[in-house]
Amino acid sequence: MIENSLAVVLCLMNLKVDLSSCLNHLKEFKSFKKVLEIKEVESQNNTITLIDDTHNASLPAMINAIEAFNSQCKYFSGNKIIAIGKISDLGAQSKEIHKKLITYIEESKADYVLCLDDETRVIVNNTKNKNITWYNDPDLLLKDLLYMANKDSLILLKSSVTDTQFPKIAQKLPIELKKFKADLSENDYPTGKKFNQYAYLKISNKTDQIVETYNAENSSTISGIAPVLYYIYAKGKNIENKNVQLKKWPTNKGRYIEGASFSENDVINAMSDSPHPSLIYQLSDLLFDKEKHRLKVINEFVHNYNLSKSAVVNLTGRYRKKERQSFTVYDLYNLYIKHKDILLSNDHKFVFGDQ
Q1: Which residue in 107, 159, 152 sits closest to 132, CA to CA?
Q2: Please, are residues 113 and 105 in contact by the beta-carbon 8 Å criterion?
């Protein structure tokens, strides 16, 4: 802001404008309300401190916010969390400028770093020795923040104000913290550990209506639903059941090595019984010509069946510490209503997740 103010003064001088009246306005200068605004929020008898700096973002402003966060960390005994969105309006320079934050993130005093928006993915993918996670769903990031904000936590919220959903997280977080009640111990949730709450819906075979629920509104996984969608899509195509040789995939091992032979039906049906990730790669390769084609089909599924935005994040659907994905029992219900005959065609069961 000092640089911007000096730039304005220089422009006015260059335009031969009388500066006396302008300088009087500078004396009245007040910073934006949200510039490193620090506020305390009570949650479950815990006090959580938020540094809200979501009014605007540039590379220097991001660095300044992280350094301000670091300077405060020594005063807090709870989780120290940095949650950031993208720096907007960078054009072709976006990737390179976001990469310049990596060192500051790695050297920060944060216990957890949560990132929203496609532009921050380069930070997550290249940051080492830090508990850092990328989100494509602001609601899931908000939910995780609620669970991670323990007693005497410090949370930095920083992003641009335009072209990102992140400021809405900053707006909602204090409200949600005040009314949030967790049934889990803080060690049960989420990044790096399994989410051990269970939830279910019971459906009438006759009417397909929900007849009983348990904890459905809080249902959440740490894996994605991609193999289920590939299975449904494959069953709807007239695929020739020829033998295929397993290609070279990063997850190959044991029985699933390059050159291993499977029928196409074997690969498809494997999706219904806790599929090996190499078979998921192979099926995706069989079904889709290009990644663009796969994403188009997946996005249509998510839209047409009103699935959670985070239901499909990576190709295999496997849990990855750096990619947060999650689906709910309602997502399964929405798929079941349309495709129950397909989903239950193998032994009347469908098991997913590699763990």
Answers
A1: 107
A2: yes
Q: What does the longest C-alpha to C-alpha distance in the chain come to?
A: 84
Sign of CA dihedral 269, 270, 273, 274: negative
Model pLDDT for residues 31-55, shown as the tens digit of each residue: 666 567 788 998 877 899 999 988 8
Tell me which amino acid residue 188 is: D
The Cα 186–Cα 92 span in angstroms is: 41
* DSSP code string of 18-61: --HHHHHHHHT----TTTTEEEEEEETTEEEEEEEE-S---HHH
Proportion of the chain above pLDDT 70, given as a percent: 94
For residue 252, the SS3 value is coil
Of 67, 53, 33, 297, which is closest to residue 157 (Cα–Cα)? 53
| Three-class DSSP labels, 267-306 | HHHHHHECCCHHHHHHHHHHHCCCHHHHHHHHHHHHHHCC
Pairing of strands 112-116, 80-84: parallel
* Sequence-distant contacts of 58-61: CB under 8 A, at least 24 apart: 58/87, 59/87, 59/97, 59/100, 59/101, 61/158
The tokens for 263 are 């029928």
DSSP string spanning 167-230? HHHHHHHHHHHHH---SS-GGG-STTS------EEEE-TTT--EEEEESGGG---SS--HHHHH
CA dist., res. 135 & res. 191, Å (int): 12
297-330 pLDDT, tens digit per residue, is 999 999 999 999 999 999 999 988 899 999 999 9
Non-local (6+) Cβ contacts of 240 within 8 A are 264
Question: Which residues neighbour 70 within 8 Å (Cβ) at sequence distance 6 or greater?
Answer: 108, 109
User: How far apart are the C-alpha atoms of 310 and 302, rounded to whole Å?
Assistant: 9
Contact indicator for 216, 330 with CB cutoff of 8 Å: yes
Interval 182-209 mean pLDDT = 70
What's CA 64's distance to the chain center, in Å? 24
**Mean pLDDT, to the nearest integer, of 147-158?**
93
User: Is the pLDDT score of 192 beyond 50?
Assistant: no
